[in-house]
Amino acid sequence: MILSDGKIKELIIGGGLVIEGFNEDNLTPNGYDVTVAEVSVLGWRPQQEGIAVIPSKTWFAVSTEEYFKFPPYIAGQIWIRTTWARRGVIPSFGMIDAGFEGDLTLSAYNTHEEIELPIGETFAQIAFHMLDKGAEKEYAERSGNYQGQRGVNL
């Protein structure tokens, strides 16, 4: 089951789902838009303010302003916002495991002409999925490689 905006707010208010840096304006009918905190283009110093310029045919990574704490009964699926897909950005996203805690590092490739990506701009959306029951072993117990991460973590 994908959670509605109302259910997401209810879980945040009740403490079942934590989004540090939560902005109610980023809620969608069925998810939450995450915002850019940092942009890293391979070989360049990570950019944390202003507007990042992503050259054509270039891989880049984005970290989110939001820091998440997923309970053992919710997973997340990440989707690029169509605004960026229409500009030729191809994402390489996946699932956010139940029990994950941290901000997100999102990988993408700019296929078309140079784009400008402002720090603080929305970039992707998370659809929250309710598991049929709590995970037997949460993310930290299964691998936990990125548990607690902050900033772009490659």
Word description of this protein:
Strands 2, 3, 5, 7, 8, 9, 11 and 13 form an 8-stranded antiparallel β-sheet that branches. Strands 1-6-10 form a 3-stranded antiparallel β-sheet, with no helix packed on it. The chain is globular and about 45 Å long. The protein starts with a helix and ends in a 12-residue tail after the last helix. The chain has 154 residues and is mainly β. It has helices at residues 5-14, 82-85, 139-142, and strands spanning 18-20, 27-28, 31-41, 51-54, 58-64, 67-69, 74-80, 89-92, 95-96, 101-102, 105-110, 115-118, 122-130. It is built from 3 helices and 13 strands; from the N terminus they run αβββββββαββββββα. The chain has one domain (5-134): Deoxyuridine triphosphatase (dUTPase) (Deoxyuridine 5'-Triphosphate Nucleotidohydrolase, Chain A, Distorted Sandwich), CATH 2.70.40.10.
Compact description:
With 154 residues, this protein is mainly β. The chain has one domain (5-134): Deoxyuridine triphosphatase (dUTPase) (Deoxyuridine 5'-Triphosphate Nucleotidohydrolase, Chain A). 12% of the residues lie in helices and 42% in strands.
